[in-house]
UniProtKB/TrEMBL annotation:
Alphabetized GO MF terms: G protein-coupled receptor activity
Organism per entry: Phoenicopterus ruber ruber
InterPro entries: GPCR_Rhodpsn, GPCR_Rhodpsn_7TM
Origin organism lineage: Eukaryota, Metazoa, Chordata, Craniata, Vertebrata
Protein's name in the database: G-protein coupled receptors family 1 profile domain-containing protein
Domain G-protein coupled receptors family 1 profile: 32-212
GO BP, sorted A to Z: phospholipase C-activating G protein-coupled receptor signaling pathway; positive regulation of Rho protein signal transduction
The organism's place on the tree of life at top rank: Eukaryota
Length: 212
């Protein structure tokens, strides 16, 4: 459990403290996620809702691995890509999806810690493995849909220059562009809100444990 707590601290710093990721935090995050996935396979770790959330958090770094490996392959072997704009947008959207997944899952862990600290008995029915898996599934579906919308918007931006002004593609481009812009704004404010809520939760937990 100490290693899992250290992993959570690392992820909180990476996604909710640092304004942007860098090579050091990304490398440490990937190594921590790999180590955490190995730990969670051990029989010593009980199957609880927190373990389910942490497992999903570690698996979210697969998106970062795909992006990093793809860039390394292109750079090392000088691979020529037919659609550079599409691939670049896809890799960036995968990193964005990873960030949003991690922030939401970390917030779920924080919320569960709040319930355990202040409502241990009342929240027992809510803090189940089934509900944790359901929450993870919903988060993955929402973020996947967001990533698909961003990718469609980036793809249509490239293809719209050659499309007729009255073609259906233009209407689709305007819809995706508007929806993507609204979603980016919403995700920005949601990120600020999640940071504030997480700080408040751990502030309450810290002082509650100190008083005890």
């Amino acid at each position: 459990m100490k290693d899992l707590r250290r992993y959570l601290v690392l992820k909180y710093i990476q996604y909710l403290v640092l304004s942007s990721s860098n090579a050091i935090s990304t490398s440490l995050g990937l190594l921590g996620s790999l180590y955490t996935l190995i730990i969670l396979q051990s029989a010593k770790v009980s199957s609880k809702s927190t373990a389910v959330l942490i497992s999903s958090l570690a698996k979210a770094d697969i998106l970062v691995s795909v992006s990093v490996v793809s860039e390394m392959v292109v750079w090392t072997f000088d691979v020529s890509i037919s659609s550079t704009a599409f691939t670049s947008a896809l890799l960036q959207n995968l990193l964005t999806a990873n960030t949003h997944l991690s922030c939401l899952l970390l917030s779920c862990v924080a919320f569960e810690a709040y319930l355990i600290t202040f409502f241990p008995t009342e929240s027992r029915r809510l803090r189940t493995v089934k509900n944790a898996r359901l929450a993870c599934r919903i988060i993955w579906i929402l973020v996947t849909a967001e990533c698909a919308l961003f990718q469609a918007d980036d793809l249509l931006k490239v293809s719209s220059t050659s499309a007729p002004t009255r073609s259906p593609c233009v209407l689709l481009f305007r819809f995706c562009s508007t929806a993507a812009a609204l979603l980016r704004s919403l995700s920005y404010f949601l990120g600020i809100l999640l940071r504030t809520v997480n700080v408040y939760i751990y502030y309450k937990i810290f002082f509650s444990m100190s008083n005890r």
